[in-house]
């Protein structure tokens, strides 16, 4: 369910400017997407886990805010990011 250290390093290397760039918005969105995928799988087997549901919705909201920031900053970066992560484009 949690993102492993190795997977986190892969995402930072793929979406960051360098190997130490874990704070950029693109890397944060990639890490949040990985956590959201894990929690979504958990919710499929435990549909009445409302504490996890709340945490999942908070992560989705945070990712949405970061995506709207990226979209306002550079639309091309936004399009390539959502395409590589497999996220639908529903940010106004």
What Rg, in angstroms, do the CA atoms define? 14 Å
**Based on the structure, what is the oligomeric state of the protein chains?**
single chain
Helix content: over 70%
Number of helices: 4
The name of the CATH architecture is Orthogonal Bundle
Broad shape: globular
Order of helices and strands: HHHH
- Gap between N and C termini, in Å? 30 Å
* CATH H-level superfamily title: S15/NS1, RNA-binding
Tell me the number of strands.
Answer: 0
What is the third-level CATH name, the topology?
A: Helix Hairpins
Keywords: Ribonucleoprotein, Ribosomal protein, RNA-binding, rRNA-binding
Family: Belongs to the universal ribosomal protein uS15 family.
InterPro entries: Ribosomal_uS15, Ribosomal_uS15_bac-type, uS15_NS1_RNA-bd_sf
Subunit structure: Part of the 30S ribosomal subunit. Forms a bridge to the 50S subunit in the 70S ribosome, contacting the 23S rRNA.
């Amino acid at each position: 369910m949690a993102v492993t250290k190795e997977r986190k390093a892969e995402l930072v290397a793929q979406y960051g400017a360098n190997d130490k760039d874990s704070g950029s918005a693109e890397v944060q969105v990639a890490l949040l997407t990985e956590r959201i995928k894990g929690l979504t799988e958990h919710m499929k087997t435990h549909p009445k886990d409302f504490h996890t549901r709340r945490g999942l919705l908070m992560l989705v909201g945070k990712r949405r805010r970061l995506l709207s920031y990226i979209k306002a900053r550079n639309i091309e970066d936004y399009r390539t990011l959502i395409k590589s992560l497999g996220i639908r484009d529903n940010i106004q």
